[in-house]
Amino acid sequence: MPFARRSRAAFLTVTAIVVAALPACASQTGSPATAQGTAQAISAADRKQGAEAHPQLLQEFGGAMTGPQAAYVETVGKNIAVQSGLSNARGDFTVTLLNSPVNNAFAIPGGYVYVTRQLAALMNNEAELAGVLGHEVGHVAARHAAKRQSTATRNSLLGALGTILSGAILGNSALGQLGQQIFSTGSQLLTLKYSRGQETEADNLGITYLQRAGYDPRAMSTVLQSLANQNALDASLKGTSNQVPEWASTHPDPASRVRAALTRAGSTPGRTNRDAFLAGINGVTYGDDPAQGIVDGSRFTHPGFRMAFQAPNGFYLVNGTRAVSIAGQSGKGELATATYSGNLSTYVKTVFAGLSSQQQLQPDSIQTTTVNGIPAAFGTARVNSGNGQVDVVVFAYEWGPQQAFHFSTISQAGQSGQFDSMFRSMRRISASEATAVKPRKLSVVTVRSGDTLQSLASRMAYTDKPMERFLVLNGLTSSSRLTAGQKVKLVVY
User: Fold this and answer.
1) Domains of the chain, with CATH numbers?
2) CA–CA separation, 445 vs 456, rounded Å?
3) Which of residues 204 and 97 earns the better pLDDT score?
4) Which of 378, 359, 360, 358 is nearest to 368 (CA)?
5) Global confidence as pTM
């Protein structure tokens, strides 16, 4: 997380641009695209609105990657996008590999298609990559965005923002509607869920595009299975049964769609281009980019800001473009930054004032202290929510003459003390600690005689669940057999 200063106005600006891109779909005439039909061509209005949204989305999702991996993804994406009927010209599509450590993919009107490096790394062949990108293009071709936009416009922009953005962070928490306004992050701008029917239609369109391009259409089923396995692994790593990763929050229940996709694909043969795919993504950054900070278990370290803190026991961290989210069964929070004028008490009051549009939040009092030598200030407000009272805490740190950071947390009344250890763990790290923070990357290796699942998994750059991570990453099971010469993916430093 580069900790860009965030404000409600900024959220509204980005949301307005994204929503503005959606009506172009609704304005098109003709019946919706189906697996048998064709889509309406990209209009001039589509191109204009997509071009306006594109730089905002890049900012929200970590920026565009460059280099050979990005070029490879762009080639595959354009090849599959022209199968949609939106345009026969590859140049009409902009396909971007995003520098984001979450599993996500999406498309917007105007020919703009996106996939994160993390989701690309989960795939195991080119047909799977083409299937996911085709699925996203299918949502645009079928004008599903227009239906999502009509749902959003039933609320004010700000109200819709809270609803749209809160899903992955707050889930169905009983902490009340206040949290939906407090913990909305820019990286969740596109999280209105598609309906089951829309998902099925996009799956079917993706399969159709695969067939038209000569790919194995069964790849849609295998990549959905990998996503389901990754969802389960993420939940296990975080100690929760209901954690919903970003892609799954917008594309619900991949597990239930695996069999349907396999049935729809049939037995038509096609290419997978596995070797080309593995060569194309080899070396891509995996997990957090040190420039945005690193989450390692319950610890967050940002070498650029020389900062580190530890989440409380039972909580997990998710690093976003504009904030680090802290989540657990008994509370939620985030670390972010805002404009700092040099007065911590004023800063805390300003953060409180921006947390909710529904209530004017003010701390009962503001206390000043120091944390590991860092000037700090904090305040608490007890707020009535739809499910009882909750405690909201803002704990701020002065990081320099013109910079401050703050935690915002929400928990049931009387339980805010569970975050005290995290507040007190904030510290400046040394130059040597900052230098020691290294990125993880994907490494494609060739299985040698004598290699086993265990020996390869032991080379993964993780101490927690290395075997489970290795199996999910490669679409394998504990009973899979390796053969010499086979290529597999590892995550290494």
Assistant:
1) 8-284 (no CATH), 290-435 (3.40.1000.10), 440-492 (3.10.350.10)
2) 10
3) 97
4) 378
5) 0.79
